[in-house]
Amino acid sequence: TTVLSGASALLTWNSSNADSCTSTSFTTGGAADNTTGVSTGTLTASKNYAIDCVQNSSGNHAYDNVTVAVNTPSGDITADKERVQSGDSVLLTWSCNPESTTAQVTGSNSFTSSTLSGTDVDSGAITTQTVFNLMCQSVKVDSVIVNIAVNADEF
Questions:
Q1: β-strand 61-71 against 2-4: which pairing, if any?
Q2: Which of 25, 21, 56 has the alpha carbon at shortest distance from 35?
Q3: CA–CA separation, 143 vs 114, rounded Å?
Q4: CA torsion, points 13, 14, 17, 21, in degrees to nearest 10?
Q5: How many angstroms separate the Cα of 6 from the Cα of each of 31, 36, 40, 43, 106?
């Protein structure tokens, strides 16, 4: 099982011949079955969960474990030009990793978009150096800077 950083997972188990189950990594309540699940709570790193179930009459144990892997949000944003004349725009392209469910692109020129990905999206007018930031799952993952071209006759 894989979740994004900051998310949680549900742990479920079913032991048909056991009388009770215990774990040192999560609360089982002693139940031999739990199909509704126990939350891991917020995860920021991968974690292993183990369970030990016992049949009282025989003393037999059954062990199992699962690792919940955590993916850190990632993505990238690009602009089709690094420099523009004041008042021009650029075309922005961005995407977050497939596990992301939210994205936000903001620009210091007041550009904003909440779509998960964009291809050749017009930035709107750029009149000063502008930074476009990409956030996936509310985490800043990339940015691109667009500068204003300097004309030689300005010197």
A1: parallel
A2: 21
A3: 15
A4: 30
A5: 28, 21, 11, 5, 22
Phi, psi of 3 (to 5 degrees): -130, 165
Cβ atoms of residues 40 and 49 within 8 Å: yes
Q: Which of residues 132 and 5 earns the better pLDDT score? A: 132
Tens of pLDDT along 117-152?
999 999 999 999 999 999 998 889 999 999 999 876
Contacts from 49-53 at CB under 8 Å and sequence distance 24+? 49/11, 49/23, 49/25, 50/23, 50/24, 50/25, 51/13, 51/21, 51/22, 51/23, 52/21, 52/22, 52/23, 53/13, 53/15, 53/18, 53/20, 53/21, 53/22
Ordered alpha helix ranges (H), 6-72: none
What's the pTM?
Answer: 0.67
DSSP SS3 for 154: helix
Residue type, 83: R
pLDDT at 5: 83
DSSP readout, 64-90? Answer: EEEEEEEEPP-EEEEES-SEE-TT---
**Helix, strand or coil, per DSSP, at residue 105:** strand
